[in-house]
């Protein structure tokens, strides 16, 4: 009896640590999207968690990303990361407010990159266009 309680306790502590370090994330999503090789349009009715969309970009080139975000409620963070990278190694991070529009130039180091949205009870409309 005691070894099984000890095992459950270790499992619970490990689960809690992974959750707090944002390695393990639960997502609740209600969204629509349209994606082409150079554009992305996403409408979130509700996002609580993380959602990623991949792009194939030319390697070792400068690429311009144009973005437009309309946030109706909640908090939304947008970032651009390389394939198998964490948010600490992000090429671009933007905390979005009510309305954000702009462009950013990134230098790619691999072909696969992700646009990652992290929401906390967010309702938003996002558009991304890749030039380069």
Brief rundown of the structure:
This protein has one helix and six strands; from the N terminus they run H-E-E-E-E-E-E. It has 132 residues and is mainly beta.
Description:
This protein has 132 residues and is mainly beta. It is built from one helix and six strands; from the N terminus they run H-E-E-E-E-E-E. Strands 1, 2, 3, 4, 5 and 6 form a six-stranded antiparallel β-sheet that branches. It starts with a helix and ends with a strand.
Secondary-structure topology with pairs:
Blueprint: H1 2-20, E1 28-35, E2 39-56, E3 62-82, E4 92-96, E5 99-107, E6 112-131
Antiparallel strand pairs: 1-2, 2-6, 3-4, 3-5, 3-6
Keywords:
1 helix, mainly beta, 132 residues, 14% helix, six-stranded antiparallel beta sheet, 61% strand, globular, single chain
Strand elements, count = 6
Please report the number of helical segments.
1
Report on the biggest sheet: 6 strands, antiparallel
Strand content: over 45%
The end-to-end distance, rounded to whole angstroms, is 62 Å
Helix content: 10-25%
| Overall pLDDT metric | 88
- Overall shape: it is globular
Give me the secondary-structure category: mainly beta
Low-pLDDT segments, ≥5 res: none
Report Rg.
18 Å
């Amino acid at each position: 009896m005691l070894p099984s309680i000890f095992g459950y306790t270790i499992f619970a502590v490990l689960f809690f640590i992974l959750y707090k370090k944002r390695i393990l994330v639960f997502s609740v999503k209600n969204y629509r999207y349209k994606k082409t090789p150079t554009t992305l349009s996403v409408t979130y009715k509700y996002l609580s968690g993380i959602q990623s969309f991949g792009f194939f970009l030319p390697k070792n080139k400068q690429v311009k990303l144009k973005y437009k975000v309309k946030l109706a409620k909640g908090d939304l963070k947008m970032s651009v990361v390389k394939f198998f990278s964490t948010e600490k190694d992000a090429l671009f991070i933007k905390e979005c407010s009510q309305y954000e529009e702009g462009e950013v130039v990134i230098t790619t180091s691999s072909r696969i990159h992700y646009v990652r949205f992290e929401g906390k009870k967010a309702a938003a409309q996002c558009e991304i266009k890749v030039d380069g």
